[in-house]
## 1
Amino acid sequence: MILDTSKYLGPCSCGRDHELRTKLVVCEHGALKKFDSYMDDAGLSGFRTVLYDTNTYNLPSVTRVRADQEIVLEAQGLHSEKGLIEDCMTRFVRKPDYVVAVGGGTLMDFARYSAWKLGIPFVSVPTIVSADGFTADICSIIIDGQKKSIPMQAADAVICDIDVVAGAPRFLTIAGLQDIMAKCVSIADWKIAHLVSGEYFCERVCGMAQEALDLMTKCAYDLKAGKEPDIETMAYTQMLSGLTMQILSNSRAASGAEHLVAHLVEMKPRGFENAHGLHGECVGVGTLLVAQAYHKLAERESIEVKPFTPIDEEWVRWEFGELADGILKENENDVLATFPPENIKLHWQEIRGIIAEIPSYEELDSLYAAIGAKHTLEELGIDPVVKDSFLDISSAIRNRLTLARMTRLIAD
Ligand SMILES: [Zn+2]
Ligand SMILES: [Zn+2]
């Protein structure tokens, strides 16, 4: 399928005029064979520098595209680090008119950073689509030893050849599926935050996230029924998800309370010391836990609220140890202080209605178990003891308004 991004552009009922750098997204069998004509469609011409790594260069399923210069980076130890990318740029025989990157997220960051630095377009050719970064504009890069996620530049075109990405190992496809299915929570969190605090919300962008969620849910149930994975549709949902980030310049539509498990696994606070797992796997377990907690909250027919109080420093120091200073800083301008807590009570029935749209824990758990997706804390090496304080721990690490965070304003 070809995703015409122009339908998402222009003036919107949310009050904004939406823009996207990415004009063309192709998810098709044999797309690489028609690469040149897609470049014409995207209006890209001139000196073409194509980046591979030693793995993607030698993939039998990859049809190598015409190149004015090919650069093949050693895959072993390749990571997105400013120095390494600038070294790669010194190999350019001249300033390209555009760069094409054939590979996964790391190679995209090489192209993204180089293109941004040189003020030229780049084209993304994913060899794996278990993540939604291909259509986004975020560069995950190590600068001076620190990992940063910096909005930089989106690809002008994304050419995803299904014959190539279909070769990815099943566990990566499943992790990617869990990352998209997490939208059942992230969409709910966004809607609830909008209701309660008046936070910006866009029906059009939310509709894109919902479309990705609905399509991926169908793919998941097809897998459960024993069908072959529909890689084309799965790839399409990842592209759609990345576009929501590009339009919003943030991950609001794609990442809510459930995503924080992935951050905790990276940060390793108390109870998470031995935690491990792919991004999508962590997010998948997060989705289950949050779905369970939210449905439990929604059992209450009415609630009482309590006044805002800043996060308890002693508790933060106990839970987060040496990470505590960073957590306290994150909570300095607490989003919970920006609206009257009564708003949660006032909108409680609407909030319950939004939660009712989230599949139940049991439904998600049996689906994930059936398709071989990670679905327990133990599988991620996380101490199950954190389950009771999970919402508090996870919502403390990011100052984004989620229902999980709002529980600090809801009386027991
Ligand atoms: Zn994600
Ligand atoms: Zn809008």
## 2
Amino acid sequence: MSVREDAILEIGLEPRECECCGSRDAELVFSSHSIVKRAFSMWRFPMNVAVCRICGFCFVSPGPKPEDLAQYHAEGLSGYKAIGLPYTIEPRLEVLARYSAPSGVFAEVGGDQAGEFHQRLSGLFGRIIDVEISEDTTAQFRSVHDLPEESVDVIAHYDVLEHIGQVRPFLASCHRALKPGGVMVCETPDMRLYPRNLVLLEFEHTNHFSVTTLAAIAGQLGLELIEVGHLCSRTYGMVNVFRKTAVPAARPLANPIERLDALACLRGGMEQIRRNELQMAALRERMTGLSRRGKRITVWAVTDLLRRLLDGYELPSTAVIVDADPRRESHLADLGLAVRQPKDCLDHLGDSELLVICAPRYGLQILEAVTRDTGKTFARSDVVMLGSGPSGEALI
Ligand SMILES: [Zn+2]
């Protein structure tokens, strides 16, 4: 980690070898970076997406130094639940019902602050364990490596593995924690869907999986793929279920087709990012034009998409930024911008001619909250949902 002059912590980088086949020959395809405020510090998070020339596994290299990544994630902000969950619970329950162990142990790794999801697991499992690195949560364990050996019947992680700096040690600890014949449920984004979403923009992602590469890595750690599906708690995801076996699979051979597929998926993702930039350029023009005519604008949610919107663009004077999470009040201080809570500017919200939503996952909940709290229902043409597809579906 290095400290920049403007007191932004920077994630340090180091080369990574392919965790699927062991090669050091990866082709850099896409680079970017993001600035993000965590619980205490501002961070600059670089991203270098590469594809292994031998097996086609896609991962960031050079990638974050493990100690920097651990510090970054320990400084996490547990999810703000008042506006809704960023995932749906039912698909998770549907999968877990097939592997339930009413007197057994279920462990979730990286589940943030446990809530409704765990409450709804009662009946499926006898005991539920939380493993979460964020220090502002009340989890029993901070690391998967701390779980006792052969203590868990089902271990699950949802949208976690793509954030892990080193996949193999993580999966090895999942394997170690499972009882013989135990099951691991893993949801991650599916690379095959990148041409239809904006997940490639997610700068925290250090690994990009297809079913093939995920199964090849897990197999080598003694986790055999037994179920694949796309009925997931997030729209861009895939769910893969593995069973603990005694005999690990061999390393994969060269896979030129997987490499070509990975490159095609990344290029499709980069095209989505280009379209998103065009959407933002048009939005900036519209906001500037409205402001010149004295029209009010509300911009909702402090996210990476908002930072991209503000990159090189001065927010017009008639625009107000709001976020329901009070912890984000100072998150744009580096840009000299205040973040207000919606409840403190209901008049501005109600008088706004344009509502810009920068958190598409929460789009519907935000629109409902606006109508509930102000009595105003924005016309469809007066709402811009950044990071959403032509039918309004969230792409990120
Ligand atoms: Zn490889």
## 3
Amino acid sequence: MSGADVKLVLRSTRVVTPDGTRPAAIAVADGRIDAVLPYDTEVPSGSRLEDFGDDVLLPGLVDTHVHVNDPGRTEWEGFFTATRAAAAGGITTLLDMPLNSLPPTTTVDHLRTKQQVAAPKAHIDTGFWGGAIPSNAKDLRPLHEAGVFGFKCFLSPSGVEEFPELDQEQLARSMAEIAGFGGLLIVHAEDPRHLASAPQRSGPAYADFLASRPRDAENTAIEGLIAHAGRLNARVHVLHLSSGDALPMIAAAKREGVRITVESCPHFLTLTAEEVPDGATEFKCCPPIREAANQDTLWEGLADGTIDCIVSDHSPCTTDLKTPDFASAWGGISSLQLGLPAIWTEARKRGHSLDDVARWMSAAPAGLAGLTRKGAVEAGRDADFAVLAPDETFTVDPAELFHRNQVTAYAGKTLYGVVKSTWLRGERIAADGAVAGPTGRLLERNQ
Ligand SMILES: [Zn+2]
């Protein structure tokens, strides 16, 4: 321990570190982890001890895929409610997606507007992705320099007219521009031609919706992305992978040195097409939740490292937009507060440990965004933690969630893993379902 400035020591018999889970005491100074010490280290006089017993101390989760929709569509969510829900769910860092807010994050002015709105409302540390749309090629470098963590683009319609998709030529041009300044392009990968030729039937049947968003749309888009990224030596990231068919080509691209990373989401990894009731559009998202057999391949992709991260893709809306018609209902699943227990429930069933969960939900997303102070319980990082009772269960009651709208595909599910408390830079920001006031900071790339 370095000494005088350590005011807080946290300890647990199960601390999840990059080298495995073990009993440890964590000395905190000035909001950072000063040292990770043996469990029975003497606590310096003047320091406060928080002992979590056998509850598991995880690194605070990093969720790099959240649609906060603020300003502009704050009836859908907002920085106050989103970050409060995140804090209650063990998340200490969030990156906001560039679309569904008005304005979208496609210029530096728009970024500044969003930062101003977010600053007083953020319960956790919050950063921003920029957007790459056909009209803003000249804004990409200024946005990069202003601190966005990378750029999101679509290859098929996004669902909102202010955020148009890129065609293949625009994709290649944007990718080259972004690679030119060492940036990261993150991609909603569904090919528009495959979507256009798929059967489009409206109504309450989930099978019809699933048929309208075939795996081939994802597979083809990802194939094209790999080709562009390889040719341009560009860094790309596949958002919300749903099609397990794409895993072999992604694994091959990684082996060949293509700079590609991949995320999947709790809904693809814990919910299945077979269980979606007719008209239950709280399960609608794009790409869609697929069959149980496909889900097994996604878990294999996580186990062998082809899939790097698990992030929420929390994309809420008001209840009235979730009409029972799958074709017209808003697509997006609300899950910010539930990602950790949802994934832990499935992971433990499949023989994975909380070390795996911490890697997928904290270390890897922090690495994706270059957040070197986040993502691990080790000296020098921010003292951000989630304290989890992994063997306790609870049943999801949407009315008890902090999301702005009480619509979620997880309603009524019994999940393992109760978040007992959440710590941000050495301060307890959530405990036993109550969340303190906003003390999050705004993050910029390379801070
Ligand atoms: Zn999304």
